[in-house]
Specification:
The structure is a homodimer of 417-residue chains. Chain A is α+β, with helices and mostly antiparallel strands and 417 residues long. The first copy, chain A, contains six helices and 25 strands. In chain A, the strands form five sheets. A nine-stranded mixed beta sheet of chain A has the order 1-5-21-7-18-22-23-25-24. In chain A, strands 2, 4, 6, 15, 17, 19 and 20 form a seven-stranded mixed beta sheet that branches. In chain A, strands 8, 9, 10, 13 and 14 form a five-stranded antiparallel beta sheet that branches.
Chain lengths: 417, 417
């Protein structure tokens, strides 16, 4: 294909004006309009940058803009899909019903419901610190949180805690090591609200309140798997949608295979598709057991292609109903406890989905999706598809952190060569 | 270490006298006694060889011995842990409560309860056909069965069926292709019992009764992952134990990572450990969705080492309570719905375990095991272990075919370098 035409290259800087925090919506005004074929570099920020403001926010105009929060001014006020007046829990505007800082949306010209948006992930780079004290170094955070799988199952039930660990990327660029950790202690945010747990995103952590453990994970190097946890088109439903549960619109897939060189296909539900991205992860294991990954501000470069309804130029997109990831060697399909939860769980879907998650349901979903893919996209009959699934397709636990638990199916391309 | 001493090499041929079919038991007489350090080549047969007797049994003295079944003589009468008089369902001796042809047991001298048996998998080779018409070629079977995950979920609920597909290994040796398939039709076994479904192992399939589909999986090559589905020490419980549900004694793990170059560690429960092996798989996907893998008679070469209780020479064996697989790059821990199901599910455990399986439970088990491994074997504290699990450990669906459903955790060794 050669290099893209210069006029088709775009750049979206991250800032208070180019992000939406904690929710998706078809009503959001686009930050950019592009034609199919365009290459777009998009900066993103991790919502966990405030775990160590010194290293991950200070001196960075984009991050300082998004995280700006003083008693007088909170630049990005709404964080989450909840009520703006925080009338449910009083946590803050949006109530933290959704946590991810998402850059976008990008409007893709000509995209209509029924089309498929192809998102090629051309590059992913961690965002270096702009603080002169740490200049050029890259940092990340893992938070072992109350919504993690471990939280109900501590060895000592009486000692429930949330733990944040700050990591730095090794000079080699292919691993990270822990710098220090701390237990969460209650924080008073700049608006005066006290947070006994990590119940609202972007709370600036007062490091003078912490006891830091500097002897953490000695000798351990975490291999990197840079990817974006959240890549989404706008859901078809009106209103604001919590950014946490993934679904057929994509969203918070939290699949580490969505790295450089991979391509994500998403069924379009609204005019212009409205693509948003965020939740950068330096690494994650299948399962995302403690509630978060190795969270890191990152910049992605993407190329968008459009497959019009009824005439996909790639046969394997026939019948696509949810997110399909393609890597150089694999197709990866995403099953969920409730693939279309916004429709299927009724009026209270966004609350219900957290109560009803089940790996058993997610596997059933992944099984059916995979059977359908092998039949529609590869022309197998049902018996062939079932047999092939048993002897060559791997089912894994994507995440049990995001309300709508996921099981993915990995189909090797080698089958079809 | 250099090559093993010649006197420490042994060979167990497969035949009616060296197998037990469908069950494990601490009461079985060993077919071989060896000292720790011994290298043993063990032949095994797939219980699915009778799906195509021409290709997988005929002309092979070992297979003909094990599968010999005429109205006058059934050389291996008991198949399964059920009643010998088949008084429950009338399927046949042992009732098919357990299906695997297991070669062994091998008694390891000096092994005692509380020790850990190390099983190094030095080599795995498929067993070539001995029939002159197919001489030297290797065949395998997948059966999409009534106990598979798909059986309750066909696209047309009214068209329930079992489907057998016969495969051949490609000349390259690294892939297999389908030769033909057939729907199961009722078979009358040599004792005169009719089998409407695949409800008893080793039923010789009368190919004149079949409609064969020769146009199956056109263009598809299945990459090989040769491994043994079943590697076990004897459970501590008395009596016969169904070979299907895996547990802390190992058994029917059905993890394809147990291939050449891998090592399996099993906690010893009975004197001599009593190791048995079978259920050869040319390939399997995580999940084993249709009830079986790519089933193939295979010969394995193993080296046994013993780690005495309280003084394991490998630190990562501290606190081992169930099967641990080590590959060149990974440690793999096995969670189950009920890790110690024979004890935990009471008198009817062997029936109950099929009714109660749950991926949610299996993940909980895998989570706890992994936390324990990272703490005991790697010296991490609980918080470090939890964090590491979230950012670097992959949880996958081992199988939903074996009653006691499994979720495994894959821990990269690169973490500790």
């Amino acid at each position: 294909h050669g290099p893209p035409r210069p006029e088709a290259r775009h750049h979206v800087a991250v800032g208070a004006d180019t992000v939406h925090w904690g929710y998706l919506s078809r009503s959001l005004p686009p930050v950019l309009h592009v034609a199919p074929g365009a290459e777009v570099m998009i900066e993103t920020l991790t919502q966990h940058a405030s775990d160590d403001c010194e290293r991950m926010i200070k001196g960075d105009p984009g991050a300082e803009s998004v995280f700006h929060w003083t008693p007088d001014l909170k630049k990005v006020n709404r964080r989450g899909a909840g009520p703006l007046d925080a009338s449910i829990f009083g946590r803050g505007a949006g109530e933290g019903f959704g946590v991810h800082i998402l850059t976008g949306p990008v409007h893709i010209e000509g995209a209509e419901p029924g089309d498929v948006l192809e998102v090629q992930i051309l590059d992913i780079k961690p965002r270096p610190s702009a603080n002169p004290d740490h200049f050029g170094r890259c940092f990340a955070s893992n938070a072992s949180t109350w919504w993690g799988y471990q939280y109900s199952d501590f060895l000592d039930k009486a000692d429930r805690r949330e733990v944040v660990t700050i990591f730095e990327v090794e000079p080699s660029g292919d691993a990270a090591r822990a710098l220090y950790s701390y237990r969460w202690v209650p924080q008073i945010d700049p608006s005066g609200i006290r947070h006994d747990t990590i119940d609202y995103p972007g709370i600036p952590v007062d490091h003078s309140s912490l006891v830091k453990n500097l002897d953490v994970m000695r000798g351990i190097k975490v291999p990197l798997r840079p990817h974006f946890g959240c890549m989404s088109v706008a859901p078809r439903e009106t209103g604001l949608v919590d950014s946490i549960p993934p679904g057929n619109f994509g969203g918070n897939l939290d699949n580490w295979r969505a790295g450089k060189g991979a391509t994500l296909y998403l069924p379009v539900s609204v005019p212009g598709a409205l693509f948003s991205v965020g939740d950068g992860h330096l690494a994650q294991g299948d399962g995302e057991i403690d509630g978060t990954a190795l969270e890191c501000s990152m910049t992605g470069t993407f190329r968008f292609e459009l497959h019009k309804k009824g005439s996909p130029t790639k046969g394997f997109l026939r019948g696509l109903t949810g997110p399909l990831l393609e890597t150089p060697d694999e197709f990866v399909l995403h099953g969920f406890s409730y693939p279309d939860y916004l429709r299927d769980l009724g009026r209270d879907a966004q609350a219900e989905v957290y109560q009803r998650s089940s790996l058993n349901r997610a596997l059933r979903s992944a099984f059916r999706l995979t059977r359908r893919f092998l039949m529609d996209a590869r022309g197998l009959d049902e018996d062939e598809a079932t047999t092939l699934m048993s002897i060559a397709v791997d089912f894994g636990v994507t995440q049990v952190a995001d309300g709508n638990w996921g099981v993915h199916a990995t189909i090797p391309k080698a089958l079809f060569r």
